[in-house]
Design goal:
Length: 367
């Protein structure tokens, strides 16, 4: 998500955290691919058909506001009695061969939770806050505007980039259920590119190079046998549909169209959020309709949820006016008391969340 606090702080904090202390057609084309992605599509389509929005939460079952690493826990579950229908995860760290992701979550644990979520009929989506393939700077290192160009145009850079993608392919290919069938998941690379806080952001790379990065990502994963992924495109807030589409990589590369829009500024920011989120979702819905894609609210939230009725009075009306297949709120950090986006038991917005979770528009998964 957008760094609304100093970049240096986020980067340092990200590296310290540890728990221990396709409409688009894949070129890989085989039966397993068809069934993995089609199962996922069917789940997304079922929600859309019933006119409901699946609720999702980042890193939900692996840590919460005041706990880390337990099994069978979830702040969302503890507040409303159901699991999120969508579990969101991050792959940052795979590209450097780490066993923990950038927020300290073991990739083996993520794999197990993906399997559990799939078995309960839910959905899994992945973002990738990766280090760049040129000098290893983290996602928020934005001092060098040649990074993307070198990754996609220069053979040494492209080879290094492909090595990063190979690590991802290995992980995606390892996501299998108890019968050995691949599990379909959503991958949302190069997100929030309309902003300037990641090294792949619009001010740091050309339109062509951004699109090339998508094209290489897709063709490389396809060629490495990744046949279980639907790809999501998710700009940050945009002024209009032209800005939304400016860097769209092409229909053959994208299955899901989304947007990341956060609520900043507490109660004072409510009107802005309503306006920005509604505009983004209405663009997302128009693009989904005209390009035959699945619409989603790929990231949102209000840090610390200082507006007690945020769920029922702010988010719900936005979704009711602009229904999409799912909505994901960001993580409840266990080691940063104010960095949470879903309520935990006793939080002042818990009652509003309970009512939100029971609303006929919203879907979660019964335990
Ligand atoms: C940001 C913050 C960071 C985190 C990063 C990647 O929005 O939550 O603490 O490291 O996402 O998950």
């Amino acid at each position: 998500m957008k760094p609304y606090i100093p970049i240096v702080f986020i980067s340092a904090f990200a590296s310290m955290v540890s728990c221990s202390g396709s409409g688009a057609k894949s070129t890989a084309g085989d039966t397993a691919e068809y069934s993995a992605t089609e199962t996922l599509r069917a789940r997304l389509a079922a929600a859309q058909k019933s006119g409901t929005v699946m609720f999702g939460h980042h890193d939900d079952p692996v840590y919460g506001h005041s706990w880390c690493g337990d099994s069978g826990r979830s702040d969302v579950l503890e507040v409303c009695g159901s699991y999120p229908a969508v579990m969101s995860w991050d792959l940052g760290g795979l590209e450097t061969g780490d066993s923990l992701n950038l927020d300290g979550v073991p990739f083996d644990r993520i794999r197990n939770e993906v399997i559990a979520q799939d078995a309960r009929g839910g959905i899994n989506t992945f973002s990738w806050h990766l280090r760049n393939a040129i000098d290893g700077g983290d996602s928020w290192s934005v001092s060098d505007s040649t990074i993307v160009g070198r990754m996609v145009n220069d053979s040494i850079g492209t080879d290094a980039f492909k090595a990063q993608l190979a690590a991802l392919a290995k992980f995606f290919n390892s996501l299998t259920d108890e019968n050995g069938n691949k599990i379909g998941v959503i991958f949302r690379p190069w997100h929030e590119h309309t902003g300037g806080w990641f090294w792949w952001g619009a001010p740091l790379c050309s339109i062509d190079d951004y699109k090339k990065m998508w094209h290489i990502t897709r063709s490389e994963l396809d060629s490495l046998g990744v046949d279980n992924v639907l790809y999501a495109y998710s700009p940050d807030r945009v002024a209009d549909i032209d800005q939304y589409m400016e860097r769209y990589p092409g229909d053959e590369y994208v299955d899901i169209v989304g947007a990341d829009v956060y609520h900043f500024g507490g109660a004072d920011g409510t009107d802005n959020y309503r306006e920005d989120a509604s505009r983004a979702l209405s663009i997302v819905r128009r693009v989904a309709e005209s390009h035959n894609k699945i619409p989603a609210f790929t990231e949102t939230g209000c840090e610390s949820i200082p507006v007690d009725n945020w769920w029922t009075e702010v988010l719900l009306p936005v979704l009711r006016a602009n229904p999409v297949s799912y909505v994901v709120v960001w993580r409840n950090a266990h080691d940063k008391p104010g960095h949470f986006y879903a309520p935990y038991p006793g939080h002042p917005s818990a009652d509003s969340f309970k009512a939100f979770s029971k609303d006929s528009l919203i879907t979660l998964i019964q335990k």
